[in-house]
């Protein structure tokens, strides 16, 4: 049996501080914006976006709309996937036209999830701008996609896997690298 080695990349304290820094970076660029909205990609992007929303609302003193996106139907490997795509929920409860959207996901790897997410968002309307925030950018892009806000950049090998654990779903906050 192949052995696996696991290493913690972010502890719960580092995780919280990283989200606070990312919220400050958003505020630096979106000072007075009333058209700011967050969209989390299912699954853990949604919980991350919700954490960021609370941090932003505390600072801005105004509500920041939060949407959820399930990109499974937009995947470019849909027809070759062995199992049926898992359908969770898409809910965009704000007008997308002219909004400034920050798309939130846990890990950026090939970029194919983000490509699909952009296609999904554009089906709802025409935002004035879309930016990307990820907790971990692990490299190995297969498309010309980059993140505007990055929690942690990691040089990884393709044999490694990054898992983001989040309290609301996994009972603790952490980022873990597994080498197979
Ligand atoms: O840049 P990419 O190569 O597209 O990879 C990044 C995506 O992979 C993971 O999702 P996964 O498909 O594992 O589903 P999950 O979020 O439901 O666990 C992760 O949450 C990102 O959304
Ligand atoms: O390492 C990886 C690659 C894709 N998606 C993840 O969540 N982790």
UniProtKB/TrEMBL annotation:
Superkingdom of the source species: Bacteria
GO molecular function list: uracil phosphoribosyltransferase activity
UniProt KW keywords: Glycosyltransferase, Transcription, Transcription regulation, Transferase
EC number, UniProt record: 2.4.2.9
Residue ranges of the motif PRPP-binding: 101-113
UniProt entry tagged with the keyword Transferase: yes
Biological process per Gene Ontology, one example term: regulation of DNA-templated transcription
This protein's record includes keyword Transcription: yes
A Pfam family it matches: Pribosyltran
Xref: NCBIfam families: PRK05205.1-1, PRK05205.1-5
Family of this protein: Belongs to the purine/pyrimidine phosphoribosyltransferase family. PyrR subfamily.
Official protein name in the record: Bifunctional protein PyrR
Originating species: Desulfohalobium retbaense (strain ATCC 49708 / DSM 5692 / JCM 16813 / HR100)
């Amino acid at each position: 049996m192949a052995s696996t080695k696991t290493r913690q990349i972010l502890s719960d304290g580092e995780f919280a501080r990283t989200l606070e820094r990312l919220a400050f970076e958003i505020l630096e660029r979106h000072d007075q914006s009333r058209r700011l909205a967050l969209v989390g990609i299912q699954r853990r992007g949604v919980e991350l976006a919700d954490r960021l929303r609370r941090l932003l609302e505390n600072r801005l003193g105004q509500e920041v709309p939060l949407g959820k996106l399930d990109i499974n139907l937009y995947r470019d490997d849909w027809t070759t996937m062995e199992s049926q795509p898992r359908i969770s929920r898409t809910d965009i409860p704000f007008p997308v036209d002219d909004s400034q959207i920050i798309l939130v996901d846990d890990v950026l790897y090939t970029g194919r999830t983000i490509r699909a997410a952009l296609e999904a968002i554009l089906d709802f309307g025409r935002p004035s701008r879309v930016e990307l925030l990820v907790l971990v950018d692990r490299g190995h892009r297969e498309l010309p996609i980059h993140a505007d806000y990055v929690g942690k950049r990691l040089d990884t090998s393709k044999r490694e896997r990054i898992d983001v654990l989040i309290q609301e779903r996994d009972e603790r906050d952490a980022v873990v690298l597994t080498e197979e």
